[in-house]
Design goal:
The protein is an alpha/beta fold and 223 residues long. The N and C termini lie far apart (40 Å).
Protein backbone atom coordinates (compact mmCIF):
# COMPACT_ATOMS: atom_id res chain seq x y z
CA UNK A 1 0.00 0.00 0.00
CA UNK A 2 3.00 2.31 0.36
CA UNK A 3 4.25 4.25 -2.65
CA UNK A 4 7.72 5.77 -2.45
CA UNK A 5 7.95 9.19 -4.09
CA UNK A 6 11.50 10.11 -3.10
CA UNK A 7 14.18 9.21 -0.61
CA UNK A 8 12.63 9.36 2.87
CA UNK A 9 9.15 10.10 1.42
CA UNK A 10 6.18 7.75 0.97
CA UNK A 11 2.41 8.00 0.61
CA UNK A 12 -0.52 5.64 1.17
CA UNK A 13 -4.02 6.07 -0.23
CA UNK A 14 -7.38 5.22 1.30
CA UNK A 15 -10.64 5.11 -0.77
CA UNK A 16 -12.48 7.37 1.67
CA UNK A 17 -15.90 8.81 0.84
CA UNK A 18 -17.35 12.01 2.27
CA UNK A 19 -21.11 12.72 2.05
CA UNK A 20 -21.23 10.41 -0.95
CA UNK A 21 -18.26 11.96 -2.75
CA UNK A 22 -15.35 9.75 -3.82
CA UNK A 23 -12.60 12.01 -2.55
CA UNK A 24 -10.25 9.41 -1.12
CA UNK A 25 -7.59 10.35 1.41
CA UNK A 26 -3.81 10.27 1.39
CA UNK A 27 -1.34 9.81 4.23
CA UNK A 28 2.25 11.02 3.87
CA UNK A 29 5.16 9.35 5.65
CA UNK A 30 8.45 11.22 6.06
CA UNK A 31 11.67 9.79 7.48
CA UNK A 32 13.34 12.49 9.55
CA UNK A 33 17.10 13.10 9.92
CA UNK A 34 17.15 11.10 13.17
CA UNK A 35 15.65 8.08 11.39
CA UNK A 36 12.22 8.35 13.00
CA UNK A 37 8.98 8.63 11.04
CA UNK A 38 6.37 11.37 10.80
CA UNK A 39 2.86 10.42 9.67
CA UNK A 40 0.84 13.28 8.20
CA UNK A 41 -2.95 12.86 8.15
CA UNK A 42 -3.13 9.15 9.08
CA UNK A 43 -5.54 6.91 7.21
CA UNK A 44 -6.90 3.62 8.63
CA UNK A 45 -3.86 1.54 9.59
CA UNK A 46 -4.27 -2.16 8.84
CA UNK A 47 -1.86 -4.71 10.26
CA UNK A 48 -0.24 -5.04 6.84
CA UNK A 49 0.20 -1.30 6.40
CA UNK A 50 1.56 -0.99 9.94
CA UNK A 51 4.12 -3.71 9.21
CA UNK A 52 5.24 -1.88 6.07
CA UNK A 53 5.58 1.37 8.00
CA UNK A 54 7.45 -0.26 10.88
CA UNK A 55 10.01 -1.61 8.42
CA UNK A 56 10.83 2.00 7.48
CA UNK A 57 11.57 3.15 11.03
CA UNK A 58 10.01 4.03 14.36
CA UNK A 59 6.87 6.18 14.23
CA UNK A 60 7.46 9.13 16.54
CA UNK A 61 5.21 11.92 15.18
CA UNK A 62 1.50 11.85 14.24
CA UNK A 63 0.03 14.99 12.71
CA UNK A 64 -3.60 16.02 12.31
CA UNK A 65 -3.01 18.96 9.94
CA UNK A 66 -6.40 20.63 10.24
CA UNK A 67 -9.80 20.35 11.90
CA UNK A 68 -11.08 17.87 9.30
CA UNK A 69 -8.19 15.42 8.93
CA UNK A 70 -8.29 13.76 12.33
CA UNK A 71 -10.62 10.77 11.95
CA UNK A 72 -7.98 8.05 12.21
CA UNK A 73 -5.25 9.68 14.27
CA UNK A 74 -6.58 8.14 17.48
CA UNK A 75 -6.19 4.63 16.05
CA UNK A 76 -2.66 5.49 14.90
CA UNK A 77 -1.82 6.80 18.38
CA UNK A 78 -3.09 3.56 19.92
CA UNK A 79 -0.90 1.54 17.57
CA UNK A 80 2.17 3.71 18.21
CA UNK A 81 1.69 4.96 21.80
CA UNK A 82 5.20 6.44 22.01
CA UNK A 83 4.48 8.86 19.17
CA UNK A 84 3.81 12.54 19.80
CA UNK A 85 0.36 13.62 18.60
CA UNK A 86 0.03 17.10 17.06
CA UNK A 87 -3.31 18.78 16.39
CA UNK A 88 -4.52 22.29 15.53
CA UNK A 89 -6.01 24.59 18.10
CA UNK A 90 -9.65 23.62 18.59
CA UNK A 91 -9.19 19.91 17.88
CA UNK A 92 -9.12 19.00 21.58
CA UNK A 93 -12.61 20.49 21.94
CA UNK A 94 -13.84 18.76 18.80
CA UNK A 95 -12.28 15.42 19.75
CA UNK A 96 -12.22 15.15 23.55
CA UNK A 97 -11.44 11.45 23.15
CA UNK A 98 -7.99 12.30 21.75
CA UNK A 99 -4.87 13.01 23.73
CA UNK A 100 -3.12 15.83 21.87
CA UNK A 101 0.44 16.28 23.07
CA UNK A 102 1.27 19.46 21.18
CA UNK A 103 -0.80 22.18 19.58
CA UNK A 104 0.28 22.17 15.95
CA UNK A 105 2.40 25.12 14.86
CA UNK A 106 5.60 25.60 12.84
CA UNK A 107 7.57 26.06 16.07
CA UNK A 108 6.86 22.59 17.48
CA UNK A 109 7.57 20.52 14.37
CA UNK A 110 10.52 18.11 14.51
CA UNK A 111 13.89 18.85 12.95
CA UNK A 112 13.92 18.46 9.18
CA UNK A 113 10.40 19.79 8.60
CA UNK A 114 9.30 23.35 7.83
CA UNK A 115 5.71 24.32 8.57
CA UNK A 116 3.44 27.20 7.62
CA UNK A 117 0.12 27.75 9.40
CA UNK A 118 -2.62 29.61 7.58
CA UNK A 119 -4.43 32.00 9.90
CA UNK A 120 -7.88 33.28 8.96
CA UNK A 121 -9.08 29.96 7.57
CA UNK A 122 -11.80 28.89 10.01
CA UNK A 123 -12.73 26.10 10.28
CA UNK A 124 -9.80 24.46 8.45
CA UNK A 125 -6.89 25.94 10.45
CA UNK A 126 -4.46 24.04 8.24
CA UNK A 127 -0.70 23.78 8.67
CA UNK A 128 1.23 22.65 5.59
CA UNK A 129 4.58 20.88 5.75
CA UNK A 130 7.65 21.38 3.60
CA UNK A 131 10.22 18.59 3.25
CA UNK A 132 13.40 20.30 1.96
CA UNK A 133 15.37 17.18 0.85
CA UNK A 134 12.63 16.19 -1.62
CA UNK A 135 11.42 19.73 -2.41
CA UNK A 136 7.91 18.59 -1.43
CA UNK A 137 4.99 20.54 -0.02
CA UNK A 138 2.47 18.41 1.89
CA UNK A 139 -1.05 19.84 2.05
CA UNK A 140 -4.57 18.56 2.67
CA UNK A 141 -7.58 20.60 1.59
CA UNK A 142 -6.08 23.77 0.13
CA UNK A 143 -5.75 22.37 -3.40
CA UNK A 144 -7.59 19.43 -4.96
CA UNK A 145 -6.29 17.65 -8.04
CA UNK A 146 -8.74 15.19 -9.59
CA UNK A 147 -7.61 14.31 -13.10
CA UNK A 148 -9.97 11.33 -13.37
CA UNK A 149 -12.72 11.59 -10.71
CA UNK A 150 -14.95 8.61 -9.97
CA UNK A 151 -18.72 8.78 -9.62
CA UNK A 152 -21.25 11.18 -11.10
CA UNK A 153 -21.84 13.05 -7.82
CA UNK A 154 -18.12 13.59 -7.38
CA UNK A 155 -17.83 14.86 -10.95
CA UNK A 156 -20.82 17.14 -10.43
CA UNK A 157 -19.35 18.59 -7.23
CA UNK A 158 -15.98 19.20 -8.88
CA UNK A 159 -17.62 20.75 -11.94
CA UNK A 160 -19.74 23.11 -9.84
CA UNK A 161 -16.60 24.12 -7.96
CA UNK A 162 -14.52 24.67 -11.09
CA UNK A 163 -11.99 21.91 -10.48
CA UNK A 164 -13.14 18.92 -12.52
CA UNK A 165 -10.02 17.63 -14.24
CA UNK A 166 -7.87 20.57 -13.20
CA UNK A 167 -6.12 21.38 -9.91
CA UNK A 168 -7.40 24.25 -7.86
CA UNK A 169 -9.34 25.51 -4.87
CA UNK A 170 -12.92 24.41 -4.32
CA UNK A 171 -15.28 27.39 -4.62
CA UNK A 172 -17.20 26.03 -1.64
CA UNK A 173 -14.05 26.02 0.51
CA UNK A 174 -13.06 29.46 -0.78
CA UNK A 175 -16.39 31.00 0.20
CA UNK A 176 -16.88 29.22 3.53
CA UNK A 177 -13.38 28.84 4.97
CA UNK A 178 -11.44 31.83 3.64
CA UNK A 179 -12.51 34.46 6.14
CA UNK A 180 -9.55 36.80 6.65
CA UNK A 181 -8.05 37.32 3.21
CA UNK A 182 -5.17 39.48 4.44
CA UNK A 183 -4.06 36.87 6.99
CA UNK A 184 -4.45 34.05 4.49
CA UNK A 185 -2.52 35.95 1.84
CA UNK A 186 0.41 36.35 4.22
CA UNK A 187 0.44 32.64 4.90
CA UNK A 188 0.22 31.87 1.19
CA UNK A 189 3.14 34.20 0.49
CA UNK A 190 5.15 32.33 3.12
CA UNK A 191 4.29 29.04 1.41
CA UNK A 192 5.19 30.38 -2.03
CA UNK A 193 8.56 31.50 -0.67
CA UNK A 194 9.41 27.82 -0.17
CA UNK A 195 11.30 26.11 -3.03
CA UNK A 196 8.91 23.18 -3.53
CA UNK A 197 8.34 21.36 -6.79
CA UNK A 198 6.32 18.29 -5.79
CA UNK A 199 2.87 18.95 -4.28
CA UNK A 200 1.17 16.24 -2.24
CA UNK A 201 -2.56 16.74 -1.77
CA UNK A 202 -4.88 14.59 0.32
CA UNK A 203 -7.62 14.47 -2.32
CA UNK A 204 -6.81 13.69 -5.92
CA UNK A 205 -3.48 13.03 -7.57
CA UNK A 206 0.00 13.99 -6.41
CA UNK A 207 1.70 16.58 -8.61
CA UNK A 208 5.15 15.09 -9.01
CA UNK A 209 6.51 18.29 -10.52
CA UNK A 210 5.33 21.80 -11.24
CA UNK A 211 3.52 22.01 -7.92
CA UNK A 212 4.75 25.52 -7.14
CA UNK A 213 3.18 27.29 -10.15
CA UNK A 214 0.01 25.22 -9.75
CA UNK A 215 -0.30 26.27 -6.12
CA UNK A 216 0.39 29.89 -7.02
CA UNK A 217 -2.17 29.91 -9.83
CA UNK A 218 -4.76 28.21 -7.61
CA UNK A 219 -4.74 31.23 -5.30
CA UNK A 220 -4.23 33.97 -7.89
CA UNK A 221 -7.81 35.14 -7.22
CA UNK A 222 -7.02 35.87 -3.58
CA UNK A 223 -5.64 39.40 -3.60
Amino acid sequence: MLTQLAEALWVAHHPHTFIGLNFGARMTIIKLPDGSLLLHSPIPITDGLAADIDRLGAVRHLIAPNLFHHLFIGDAAARWPEATVYGPEGLAKKRPDLTIDRTLSPEVLPEGIVGVSLAGMAPLAETVLFHPPSATLVSCDLVLNFTAPRGRWTKLYLSLNGINGTPGVSKLVATTAFKDHAAIRKGLDDILALPFDRLIVSHGDVLESGGHPVFQESFAWLK
